[in-house]
């Protein structure tokens, strides 16, 4: 990716830094009685983090090329980048930040968030595509 393309990914890069910090910082010893945290809260956070990251990656790509149209290779790259980040976070939690627990379920929730983002993009992209086709037909 060249530097011109990177400038359109500023939000996704910043969000990645936020994800890395929050997923690897030490949590308070007792969070169960606080009312904010509940069982499965961690999984929901992973899902949300990666959903937002996926949307930001698509947003940057759309702004870079000034078009909504791109192929399945771009979608595959987004999935690959986010999967690498999710696996990297779990590896860091396993080997470096050992006060955090590395879990396959966290990675699974990361990927559910990614696929929710991909699905949202494809769904919105396809509806926009069909509207433009209908507009072209009404002109002709």
Defining traits:
single chain, 140 residues, mainly alpha, 0% strand
List the helices and strands and how they pair.
Blueprint: H1 3-7, H2 10-24, H3 41-65, H4 72-95, H5 104-139
Helix pairs in contact: 2-3, 2-4, 3-4, 3-5, 4-5
- DSSP strand tally: 0
Shape: elongated
**Percentage of residues assigned to helices:** over 70%
The biggest beta sheet reads:
none
- Global mean pLDDT: 84
Strand content: under 5%
Gap between N and C termini? 40 Å
Radius of gyration: 18 Å
How many H/I helices? Answer: 5
Secondary-structure element order, as H and E? HHHHH
Describe the 3D structure.
The protein is mostly helical. It is built from 5 helices and no strands. The chain has helices spanning 3-7, 10-24, 41-65, 72-95, 104-139. The model has no long low-confidence stretch (mean pLDDT 84).
Concise overview:
With 140 residues, the chain is an all-alpha fold. The chain has helices at residues 3-7, 10-24, 41-65, 72-95, 104-139. The longest helix is centred in the C-terminal third of the chain and has 36 residues, at 104-139.
